[in-house]
UniProtKB/TrEMBL annotation:
Protein name per the record: 2-amino-4-hydroxy-6-hydroxymethyldihydropteridine diphosphokinase
EC number: 2.7.6.3
Sorted UniProt keywords: Transferase
Domain of life, source organism: Bacteria
């Protein structure tokens, strides 16, 4: 990915742990590395197709003057999210803030913190087999799209499927969606659980009936196996109610462990 770099933008802000820092303020130096595709603006010589770094610098100044944080870590987390939300062309940003006048009582040049944040692509499975099934699914899509740091880009059809595991229950309505998100996998899982709880999801019986079921299928090409989270989702290659809606929105998404596309996995399941 191409880069646009801003180095040591000097601003006077009121951030710090000590009360006098929040009142009197001090100098900070901000640097940014923007991961963007500069091919189109470069070929067309058109600023509208790129990221106006002048506007970005003024945005940083205004944001830092309007907010006060104790920690440099908090400064960067909130600033990175604000920038990524405002400029869709920025896929990833590395931000550094330097504090030349850090009040530690010892001589030093600067104290600094640097972070890298960016957009990730996740695929989420949706299911319901209680009550107003379609309403539960559509509300979940809406809540995800309206959540901070999330954008729903594609949604499959909702498909009626037979129950899996515990078969003596009502049929399910299943679907899948593509999500662009700034959240980590763990943060995303927490958000999904919050949305399930709003739908009065009760976890009593594995594979049992539920008002709403939301599962992370993929998160970029990440392979993760913890007590709380398994990515890619375990056994998805054997579940028609996952593969069929996924094939609508991402037929050529490649499973990072099995090294097969969704279309291939669906064909093997029915082969």
């Amino acid at each position: 990915m191409d880069k646009i770099k801003i180095k040591d933008l000097e601003l006077y802000c009121r951030h710090g742990v000590f009360p006098e820092e929040n009142v009197l303020g001090q100098k900070f130096l901000f640097s940014a590395i923007l991961s963007v595709d500069t091919r189109a603006p470069g070929k067309a010589d058109d600023l509208e197709k790129s990221v106006n770094y002048g506007e970005l610098c003024h945005f940083i100044r205004e944001f830092m003057e309007e907010h006060t944080y104790k920690l440099l870590e908090a400064v960067l987390e909130h600033l990175a999210e604000a920038i990524l939300q405002k400029w869709e062309k920025i896929e990833e940003i590395t931000l550094e803030v330097k504090k030349p006048w850090a009040p530690i009582g010892l001589p030093l040049e600067t104290v600094s913190v640097e972070i890298t944040r960016g957009w990730h692509t996740a695929y989420i499975a949706l299911g319901s087999n209680m009550g107003e099934k379609e309403t539960y699914l559509r509300n979940a899509v809406k809540e995800l799209d309206e959540s901070a740091g999330c954008r729903v880009e594609k949604v499959s059809d909702f498909i009626a499927t037979a129950p899996y595991g515990v078969t003596e229950q009502d049929e399910f309505l299943n679907g899948a969606l593509k999500l662009r998100t700034l959240l980590t996998p763990e943060e995303l899982l927490e958000l999904l659980h919050e949305i399930e709880a709003k739908a009065e999801r009760v976890r009593t019986l594995r594979w049992g009936p539920r008002t709403l079921d939301l599962d992370i299928l993929f998160y970029d090409n990440l392979v993760l196996d913890t007590e709380e989270l398994h990515i890619p989702h375990i056994d998805m290659q054997n579940r028609d109610f996952v593969l069929k809606p996924m094939a609508q929105i991402a037929p050529y998404m490649r499973h990072p462990v099995l090294n097969k596309t969704i279309k291939q996995l669906e064909g093997e399941l029915h082969g």
